[in-house]
Specification:
Blueprint lengths: L13 E3 L14 E3 L5 H11 L2 E5 L5 H16 L2 H4 L9 E7 L4 E11 L4 H7 L6 H29 L9 H5 L6 E7 L10 E10 L5 E6 L5 E4 L5 E3 L7 E5 L1 H6 L9 E4 L6 E8 L6 E2 L17 E2 H8 L19
Parallel strand pairs: 2-3
Antiparallel strand pairs: 1-7, 3-11, 4-5, 5-6, 6-13, 7-12, 8-11, 8-13, 9-10, 9-12, 14-15
Helix pairs in contact: 1-5, 2-5
This protein binds ligand L4NPZUNZ, 2-oxoglutaric acid and fe (ii) ion (FE2).
The ligand C=C1C[C@]23C[C@@]1(O)CC[C@H]2[C@@]12CC[C@H](O)[C@@](C)(C(=O)O1)[C@H]2[C@@H]3C(=O)O binds next to strand 5 and strand 6.
Length: about 325
């Protein structure tokens, strides 16, 4: 089964055997048990310390996760010529190795969808064969449940921050014009890594997510790494029954830098393929992204110039993956 064209040593970014000590597993990831009353304070602490945490005891039905996983496997196992008919990712659609429109590449194939557009599915209808409704229904069920959980997390976060009303963040995801995105990433196993004298190929290069919150679920294959404040990369042990949450750039701005969006990346695995599904909760395009006045203490002033999500997104989607996209919007050049 050929899913990607062969890795091209000249172009695909690698982590060199010589220059890379194997990063350690990050075993101290904050684990948030959503059923516990103290979770609101622990979410705030995790966002302040890492911009990243794991969620357990969520109420996303396993059935929705498994259904979407099997639909995704079916799609990614189909012939490349078929999958390419659902591309190019501009930004929505099927993409293969090319990430975004600015020349980034990785050892990954993906489907990127807007969560509120019929158009996506028309694009896929041609390749999804007899029953395109299956994947549409699976995505809808999954995204609806994960969006609900994301809102619960954001409401607990607001409570933990003592902000009223507690739906300040979640209402942006619930808005019918919310500009949220959903992504399925498939990182085929990459057995030829040794040939390139590389420890790992980059599956998805380092970056921060532009939205408010990202909620990721993967199969049991490792690969995700996060950059900690001490400047070291740590591997996140996979856990297929939990979710991993990232603080996005917009939440960084809304908290006036109290939370920092977390840098992360994915390295390929030489033995197993990785499949991840990520919901990126974003605001409506017209929404002004600015620090919440209730979070500003004393004479504290905004670290950021005024901008709408549309303005941010327009510049973000022209940038390279690894760029700090907020620099342009900082008042004092500090982040
Ligand atoms: C290189 C790029 C891909 C990206 C748009 C961008 O120009 C910079 C941000 C990238 C990112 C990262 C998080 C999400 O995966 C994503 C969908 C997003 O909102 O911003 C991707 C964009 C993409 O793949 O088009
Ligand atoms: O696929 C993954 O595990 C993470 C990918 C990611 O960070 C992204 O798509 O923004
Ligand atoms: Fe990401």
């Amino acid at each position: 089964m050929v899913v990607l064209t062969e890795p091209d040593n000249d172009h695909l970014p690698i982590i060199n055997n010589n220059s890379c000590k194997s990063p350690s597993f990050f075993n101290d990831i904050p684990v948030i048990d959503l059923s516990k009353p103290d979770s609101k304070n622990l979410i705030v602490k995790a966002c302040e310390e890492f911009g990243f945490f794991k969620v357990v005891n969520h109420d996303v039905p396993m059935e929705f996760i498994s259904k979407l996983e099997s639909e995704a496997i079916k799609f990614f196992s189909s012939p490349l010529s078929e999958k390419l008919k659902a591309g190019p990712a501009d930004p929505f659609g099927y993409g293969n190795k090319q990430i975004g429109q600015s020349g980034d590449i990785g050892w990954v194939e993906y489907i990127l969808l807007s969560t509120n557009s019929e158009f996506n599915y028309q694009k896929f209808a041609s390749v999804l064969g007899v029953n395109p409704e299956n994947i549409r229904a699976a995505v809808n069920d999954y995204v609806t449940a994960v969006k609900r959980m994301s809102c619960e997390i954001l409401e607990k976060l607001a409570e933990g921050l003592k902000i009223h009303p507690t739906n300040v963040f979640s209402k942006l995801l619930m808005d019918e014009k919310s500009d949220s995105v959903f992504r399925l990433n498939h990182y085929p196993q990459c057995p030829d890594i040794q040939e390139f004298n590389a420890k790992n190929l980059i599956g998805f290069g380092e970056h921060t997510d532009p939205q408010i919150i990202s909620v990721l679920r993967s199969n049991n294959t490792s690969g995700l790494q996060i950059l900690l404040k001490n400047g070291n990369w740590f591997s996140v042990p996979p856990d297929q029954s939990s979710f991993f949450v990232n603080v996005g750039d917009s939440l960084q701005v809304m908290t006036n830098g109290r939370f920092k969006s977390v840098k992360h990346r994915v390295l390929t695995n030489s033995v197993k393929s990785r499949l991840s599904m990520i919901y990126f909760g974003g605001p409506p395009l017209s929404e002004k992204i600015a620090p919440l006045p209730s979070l500003m203490e004393g004479e504290e002033s905004s670290l950021y110039k005024e901008f709408t999500w549309f303005e941010y997104k327009k510049s973000a989607f022209k940038s390279r993956l690894a760029e700090n996209r907020l620099t342009l919007f900082e008042k004092f050049g500090t982040s």
